[in-house]
Amino acid sequence: MKKMKNEALKRREKTLKVLNALGIDHCEGLPLIGEERLCKTQEQVCKRFLASFFSAMLACDYNSDREFFENEGRKIICSFLEQFDVKNELYPDELKIITGDCDERLSVNVSWNAESCYALMWALGLISSEEMEKPSNGCDTRIMVKFTKQYGTFDEIMSACKMRSETEVLDMFDLYYNYHWACVDHRINPKTKCGELDEEVVMERRKALEWLVSEEEDWNEISLDT
Fold first, then answer.
1. Whether pLDDT at 1 is above 90
2. Is 80 exceeded by the pLDDT of residue 2?
3. Which of 127, 132, 110 is nearest to 53 (CA)?
4. Which pLDDT score, from 0 to 100, does residue 66 have?
């Protein structure tokens, strides 16, 4: 237990250095990240990334071009889901996008999963930690499109990834936990400094990081309290 607490304290010290450099306030009483463990395998992360990314892109089509969504978009995405054999990995809300049983509210929610996918790409070693530490703007989905287009099978994508260590995941989780607190507190108390952080981006990426260290299968079932 002592070793675990020391690791958690060192992790928080590392987080505070980043926060201070970015001019972001922190909460002294925010619980430490120490008992959590990496619960998802590289295979699970790859499958979640692909299923969520494809459905998020289709949700974007629903929001921007309804005709394309109905006539071509759904066919294209369904072919990708079959190609990489991840259709069974879809969450209920994502499946509704695929079947067309959705509305604008649902499509907007699912489209935001692109940010969660960005965090999973980081966990898979495909995004640098420097980039992941700067959630001031939404991710460039072209990065994900370019990555997936290079491969024809799920096994090829698995081979292109290298899962980050548990320590790296917990360090980033702690940072985003603190980011999220600053964003939420700033919304309630504008005097709290949250730098250039975007709360929606932070929350969605934290959701994916929480999922990595949770036994829950559906990240929508994970509490994101601060």
1. no
2. no
3. 110
4. 92
